[in-house]
Protein 1
Amino acid sequence: MSLLVFDVITIFPRFFEGPLSFGIVNQAQKKGTIGIQIHDLREFTTDRHKTVDDRPFGGGEGMVLKPEPIFEAVERIYSRQLRREGRVILLTPQGRRLSQQIAKDLSTFRQITLICGRYEGVDERVAEFLVDEEISIGDYVLSGGELAACVLIDSVTRLIPGVLNNERSRVNESFGGTSEDVGSPTPSLVLDFPQYTRPESFAGHRVPEPLLSGNHEKIRLWRRRKALEKTLKNRPDLLQYASLSEPDRRLLNDSLE
Ligand code: SAH
């Protein structure tokens, strides 16, 4: 039995044929670690025209997804299993912003329902009375929740134990935090260190010397320093200087000098 089943509610079921059929998410489905079930919102309508949207009360542009088919779809999904084992999520730019930590928390559920909006959005009663939480994948507006659902499925799936072939590849990963952060009230999140592969010299650019040295301690320190530098350069918001360990501070000070 799957460790985690995603149920996706959408008006474009065929959207998901491509994005979920490659790499780790594909393997996890084949192994049966995760299950993904796509539900066509139109199948939960009761009128002849299979209407999923309507004009907004109060006037204004565009259309809004109606509440009844969405409530009906969620009810049908939970006739299959206990709702308390699952999580119902509305994808919306007005939600909490998805992070590695949120993905980690979600990876412990047995089932996750994802509701994809379209047009001007979804009748607010879905957010108010149906879902457990609203999640956004970033501060920009997409034309639909389907891409956001794929992003969430991918980021959550690779955090389920046994999904990555090499579990250690998660240890130094960006946003992972590390053991060096433990105990700090606001841990620093450090980005991954830079990676190089062959050739040793490409267009005159050489692979940094420490990586070729074979000296494990030297490599470890170099990677940590580079990870800290990259974080400071591109994402200073992630680095709480006060919560860095003493060795980290020394490494960072060395590079600032
Ligand atoms: N009028 C809304 C945007 C609607 S966009 C507003 O301004 O807040 C249409 C649908 O795309 C949304 O219902 C949502 O499901 C999806 N969507 C758009 N941007 C998103 C984002 N950043 N994260 C998650 N879902 C998003």
Protein 2
Amino acid sequence: MTNMQSFPHEMLREIYEQPAALLRTLAMYLDGDHLREDVADRLAGWANPAGEVLIAASGSSRHAGLAAEILLEDLCGLAVDVEYASEYSCRGGQEDKGIRHPSLLVLSQSGETSDTLAALREANRRGQHSLAITNAKASTMARRADVSMPLGAGVEKAVPATKSFTCQLAVLYLLSLYEAQRMGRMESAELAANIARLQAVPGSIEAQLDGWRIQMAALAHKYNSASTFLFLGRGIHYAIVREGALKLKEASYVHAEGYPVGELKHGPNALVSDTVPLVVIATVDRALKASVLRYKKTLELLRDMKTQGAKVIAIANTGDTQVAGLVADFVAVQPINEYLLPIAEVVPLQLFAYFMALEHGVNVDRPRNLSKAVVETPKGDE
Ligand code: F6R
């Protein structure tokens, strides 16, 4: 029984709290097997008539935004851009040029990150519609956006974000269902099937947590002398390799970068060696043609990496013998829908970062130079 366990660190506790946090979050947006109508009413009119959305966020929240770009484009046909909030809020130069401004979606666990707040302030000034997804429903962002979609992750104490990230992914998936429904892009049977798939995710994670914990502890020990890791993924999984790499950096102080799989050979491959292993997401949704295509291309890369002698840790579907035969280490994830896989596959990467932190003697709940919310001292305009 995982909920009876005691945890040496908040980060590990929060990783284990994810199934419950997800269930709480889903309950806020679902009425049994249906999307809640009051939420649909609140969301009406959020997306601009041209269906253009700009996502502004920082750090892990921006990685959730990268996943949202694919969800909202693939499932709803919206046109989405993702910006670093710190860049967007300093862009300027768009005044008086007749530019049609997109709707703004801000993502933030704290709802107080100064750069993301600045992006929201700018959007409000221009009259753009705004939506805030935060883990603090009374936060400044939640109050200042036209619409707020809070998370039910509960208080997150460890600096490395874990349960707030997976809850962001769940709410973003729900947002894409709401939008797809509103735009008539998803038939009711498909909507019902997607809701049922989403509802199954917390239980699936719960069932895999103990196994991942044991395996990732062993892998962290095996790879503890690596100086750099390259994380690779395609499509929506690219968002997760960016997150896996960030988590490893901030928790264990080990250098890591996340790249799209196809970019490896355009430079980073020069780094791959005995001391620079690869972490490759090679999961697949066999019901989706595009997912199978991405998977096949990833298999090609894994074959090339085997020939090259690279050390690869693969995250792949349970029972995938093709991937298992090509890599040094194989981490299994139960197969689920392509657009929901990120919520599950990030969890072993969170655990890898956690155990690497222990291997390196880092105070994982309070890594150096970082704080839970990057805010500025108020200057009178907030
Ligand atoms: C990483 C992490 C940070 C935050 C970033 C933005 O684990 O927590 O990268 O995601 O500082 O903070 P929020 O989400 O509060 O806007």
Protein 3
Amino acid sequence: MKAILVREFGAPEVMKLEEVPTPKPGPGQVLVHIRAGGVNPYDTYMRAGIYAIKPPLPYTPGGDGAGVVEAVGDGVKKVKAGDRVYLAHPITGTYAEYTLALESQVHPLPAGVSFTQGAGVYVAYGTAYHALYHHAKARASETVLVHGASGGVGIAAVQIARTLGLTVMGTAGTDKGRELVKKEGAHYVFNHRTAGYQDAIREATGGRGVDIILEMLANVNLGADCKLMARRGRVIVIGSRGDVTITPRDLMARTASVQGFTLWGISEADEADVHAGIAAGLENGTMRPVVGKELPLAEAARAHKEVMEPGAFGKIVLVP
Ligand code: NAP
């Protein structure tokens, strides 16, 4: 089969399309014929060798993907050959024609959801769901600021928060991104590249501040977020690319908190909850992954450059 291999950590160009043996599913394993692989920012940190998880070399990137079950190993009961599935952090990477997964890492993909959309399910919706339900413990009467709403996690968060009944505010850096955020359910949209936009956000809350902030770029925004929160507000740090200074008294004055997580560390119970929520959301159409760009697998390097550039518009996926 064809797969992207990383033989050394480095620039996007270290990813090469190679011919490798197709894996065979052992007991409890599932082989999936990949129709689309999802690209996430962490794929780029991992490839560069600067992520907390450093896979042994060579490796195939990709924790998100969707396709059709090709074969199952002994004892697998959840799926059978021919089933449409999405993957969640499988054993081998999804930047490939076939991916090997544990039975627990494959999940049904409803007929109404395309494979390219399926490649944008787990990391984006899993993260947004975990942030809103398990960390923020969001309530319908609250306001949420999705700080960085035009990308994969942001669009998912806007859709979920809107479904829950919250008043949703989202930010994006381009007109196109802001239009998308509005279309996917935000009541208010702001430009995080305009000076003083936080004042406009505060004004939109009637001066009260925001109850929940889902933060995609904490190293830039956390200090201001702490001043933007309402009493008992919560900032959930989802993304950060460096250090930041905050004024702890901003938290004290508001009885507010800052929490963070990575999806890798999710408990088994929370993960089961996430997939149950995703199954319902995909089925009833309240979760609608937005695919902004499809690229051939051979253009993985381009995908890694573009996912790190400004102007996000949902997900970027690779098609083998
Ligand atoms: P993405 O699709 O590349 O989107 C990035 C988002 O950040 C876009 O909405 C972008 O908006 C926005 N952004 C850019 N500059 C910003 C600023 N100054 N203030 C606020 N937002 C800004 O990435 P993603 O998949 O949504 O992931 C978002 C972040 O969360 C990444 O850093 C990723 O590594 C991290 N993440 C963490 C977890 C976890 O487990 N904790 C899971 C998934 C993702 P424009 O492009 O419109 O400017």
